[in-house]
User: Which sequence fits this backbone?
């Protein structure tokens, strides 16, 4: 039964990844190159920072995962001594603009830098 749950979870993840013309990794690569950072920096607990620069611990995420992105950025910053940042992949839609506004509320409160990445699909 556990194997079936794992298989179904993987199927859902893989299906979700095919929705976007550009994958999260594409945005992560471009942003990390721009910041001169290290991609997929592994923390002692096995967690991976999408991009670790001299200044920022960055979580790159699509708009619908705005809350997860904020939490991960804060955790990565706490673990690395860098400032928290979110590479926010956003479309020009009312739904994504609402998500960006929600993220901005947390960013203002917890000093998270938001780097908007226009979604190209």
Assistant:
């Amino acid at each position: 039964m556990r194997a079936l749950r794992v298989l179904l979870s993987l199927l859902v993840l893989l299906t979700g990844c095919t929705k976007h013309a550009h994958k999260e990794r594409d945005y992560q690569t471009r942003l990390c190159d721009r910041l001169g950072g290290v991609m997929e920096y592994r923390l002692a607990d096995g967690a991976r920072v999408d991009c670790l620069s001299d200044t920022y611990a960055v979580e790159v995420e699509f708009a619908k995962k705005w809350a997860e992105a904020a939490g991960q950025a804060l955790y990565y910053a706490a673990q690395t001594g860098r400032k928290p940042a979110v590479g926010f992949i956003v479309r020009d839609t009312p739904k994504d603009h609402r998500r960006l506004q929600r993220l901005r509320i947390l960013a203002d409160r917890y000093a998270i830098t938001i780097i908007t990445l226009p979604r190209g699909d």
About this structure: The chain has one domain: 21-118.
